[in-house]
Structure formats: C-alpha cells, structure tokens
Amino acid sequence: MTGRKTSRRDLLKGGALAVVSVGATGAATARQVSTTGAVVEEAVTPQTLQCAEALFDVRYTDAEREMVVAEIDGWIDRMSRQRAHAKPNTLSPATVFDPRLRSRRYRDQADQVAPSGADAGALPSSPADIAFAPVWKLGQWMRRGVLTSRRLTDIYLDRIAVHGDTLECFVTVTPDLARAQADAADRELAAGQDRGPLHGIPYGMKDIVDVAGVRATWGATPYQDRVAEADATVTTRLREAGAVLLGKTTNGALAYGDRWFGGITRNPWNTQEGSSGSSAGSASATAAGLVAFGIGTETLGSIVSPSNRCGTTGLRPTFGRVSRHGAMALCWSLDKIGPICRSVEDTGLVLAALNGFDAADAGSLDVGLEIDAARPVRGMRVGYSPAWFEAGSDADRAALQAARDAGVELVEVELPDLPYDGLFAVVEAESAAAFEHLTLSGEDDSLVWQAPAAWPNTWRRARFISAVDLINVDRFRREVMEMMDGVMEGLDAMIGPNFANALLVITNYTGHPQLAIKSGYNQLATRTIFGDPASDEGTTHRVPQTTSLWAPLFEEGTLIALGREIERRLNVADDHPPAFHQE
C-alpha cells in the first residue's frame, strides 16, 4: 500500500476510481485511487465473499468462493469504468416500461372532453370565494365577461404574498410572467380566440418540472440554484392551453416527502404538520386557494398522499399518458405527471391539456382521451372489498355508500396475498441510479432530510440490491400486472381507501390510474409524513381525507364521471380551510 490511509467516504468524495489487480495469492485487490493521490487497497478474498453472503441471503462453498474471486477483478473493473461514465438525469434506460399487456386489446379513444354543463352561477363578490372556485366555474365567469384572467391572477398573487410564507408552498413566484400571460389571455378572449377550458386559469407547477429561465431546484440543496434552460413538455402544453403560471410549488427534496431545502410545506388545515409529499406545494397551495390548480407528479404516492392530507382532488394518470420530458427523473418506470385540483371535473380538464404522445419521452404512449363528465354512472360495475372499508374511516364508508346510492353495481373482489413490498426494489434501484453521483461524491450529506427512510440512506442501501433479485422483482411485476388485469376484468372501476390492500403500490407498478376524491373529515393529532402522530400532546385537528377510485388502463373518463357523481353526493368538496378562507 502506498500513500496516506483514507476512508472509503473520503475516497468517494474525492472522485475515486477503482482498478483491480490479482495478487500472487490469487485474491483480487481493489486498488482505489482518489484525485488527491491517496490510495487504499483492499483484497477481495474468499473471506470477503463469505461476509458479503449474508447481505444477499446466499451461501457458497469454499471452492465456489475461490472460483468467484479468480474472476472478480474483471467484473469490478468493468463496473468501475461504467460508473465513471457520465449519465445525465435525462438519459433513460434502454428497457422501457409499458403497462399494456400483449394479451389485452385496448379501445381506441378520440381526444374529446365534454364538460358537465353545470351552471357556475353568479360571480361571488368576495375575492376569497373567487379564489376557491373550481376551474370549471372560473372559466364560465371569464367567458361571460364578469371576470378577467388579470383580476384572477392578481387575486392569487395577493393571496400568495399573504399566505405563501406560512405554508412554505412556493419555491419561486413569477408575478411578472403571470401578469403578462394573464393580459395575453384576456386579449385573446376579447378577440374571440378561445384556447379551451384552461384559458386564463392561473396554476402552480411542481418544482421538478422545468420552465425555461425559471429556477427548478428539485427541492434539494445541491440544485437550489439550478435554472431551467428549456420548457418541459407539460409546461409547453399548458401555455398552449392558455394557462397562467403563478410560480413553482415546493416538493420534498428529490421528490420525496414535504421537506425541501427551504423548509417544510404545511397542511392548510393544520399548519403544525407537513402536507405529506412529494407534490406537497401543489396540494397545499390548491387547498389554500393560492392557485386554481397545481401540477403534481407521482412515483409512489406523491399525488395521492398530499391530496389525502390537504383534501384536494388528485388524479394520477395511466403510466405513459402524460409526457415527462423536462421533468426530473426519479424512477423511469414509475414516474407520472398529473393534476391536483379542488373538484373532480377540474382534473379532467387539466388532464386533457396534458395528454398526448411525445417522442422525447421514451415511456410516452399515443392514447386518446375521452371524458364525459356528465356520463350516467348507474349500472357501472365497481369492485370493492368489505374488509377494506371495515378497516377504513367513516369518510371511506360514506364514499362507498354514495357510490351505492348512485346506482352502481358493487362487486366484491379479492386480491391475492403476494409479497408486494418486494416491488420497492425497483424505485430504490432506479432512483439510486438516477442520483448515483450524489451518493458517490458525498453530496447526499447536504440533503436536509437525513433518516433511515430518507433518500441518502435508501440509495446507500440500494448498492446492495442484487441484479439477479432486481430482474426477478421485474418478473414479479409482470405477474402483478397480469393479476390486476384479471381483477379488473368486467369492472368499470374499483373503490377503496387510498392505501387499502397495497392498492396504491400495486397500481403504481401496474400503471393503472387512480383518482383521490375528498370524502370527509377526521379529528387527528398532528402527523408525521407517514401519518403517525408527531406528538402525544393530546390536541386534535379537523382535517380532511380522500377516498380513491381505480380504473382499467387509459379509462380516466370513467374515473371522472364516477368520481364527480360521488363528489356531488358527498357535498364536501366546497369546504375549505377556515384560516385561509377569510378576507
């Protein structure tokens, strides 16, 4: 050994490369050289392998270990050179996930959205009441000439100025851009140019989605000064739809949780607790009436979970329906972009603007979107399990009763007991690959959340996921896809508590759409990001919750029609956080 002795962590921070040689004893030696010249040599011996076997739950004989060591030098060298090759976040894997089964034929859909036809009524006199109105009402008032996009934009900008710091829900506010876009929208409407339901509607964009010339920090300290060079596809589509960008809403660092480099995004119903994550800012701002709608993303609950915490309506579309080009990649085979709104009908209007094939996204699918918000739901076959609702809340049971009262046919279903938690290896490995440079450089230490469940520790642990196990998990994923296809056979939708029977996990991995609808309220103590009580002080707060609907692949139209009818019967969507509904 030459040079000073240094730790493996120091080596990683110094940009270490590993070169392997085989000594006279036959043991492979990992000779790691840092950019400062420090050297560490660690012999990979049969005893090394024996110690490592416990990590992978395998057992080899002495002779087998000797044979592995004899060939391991080339393997380490190949992987070290591969690791040193730069791979930007925009580079997706060659293997692309497709939720469609070859054995299943999916119906063709035209791109058409039929609104419910409900009357928005008179424009309220209160700016707060205007701010909390759903998109479909705001659009009607604009077209009647009683509300302008500029006035609505100023209402939201004023509310952001008053409440934004309390909720910690915006990374960047773009008032000049918003007013310019609002003025342009008003001029176009006055000239008879109508871009559609989102024309003139102000919104917030989750901060992992790029807007050219605006910071896109990904919520993380290493990127807090990052400025986007080009628009993401969804940014372009929303601009073409006439929507007005108010700013970039917060997300947990690198799309996990509600903690970002500047604070913790708050739940408007109880500002002592975070808004869950990772589309934390979009849900918080939408619930508090700071935006007309927000754009969220979901890899494994990041639309549904903050919608549940804040009482918004979140739609996670079918995988591949909405382009992710220009958005931070966390897990290429799971990431999705979708709307967070205050009504079910609004989610359909926003999704229609986002939908469409994009060659720039390797996972994008060319699928039409048909939505009829007023479609009758009587006779729809809706799957459920009584056990889900026995373990659920009164709000969940109220949603089930609303579906029953609407005349749907409730069909009992049962999901097999399978090791669904094994699927987590996919997001752990893909995200660790996407941000490998943070782990190897030691920059992961700068992330604000440092805990066993946080990304830094997850990614260090992911280095020990066996490639063989990961491939077998992927094979298991196909088994789960086929299982869910069978469960959905003959059903129009399913209903249940958001996290019932691992359905949120299952349907994220199978690519099925999920709609979280505000269904009622609970008295709960302040909670952690995972829903556990944050303290034992005994104080409770009236906070909302959602109940979920799932549909077969690409059948978001069914979710909108059924969800809107349940929402109408529950009559809680128009309740808003009292502290933020005052003038």
UniProtKB/TrEMBL annotation:
Residues 152-500 form the Amidase domain. One of its GO terms (molecular function) is glutaminyl-tRNA synthase (glutamine-hydrolyzing) activity. Gene3D superfamilies: Amidase signature (AS) domain. Pfam families: Amidase. This is Amidase. It comes from Maricaulis maris (strain MCS10) (Caulobacter maris).
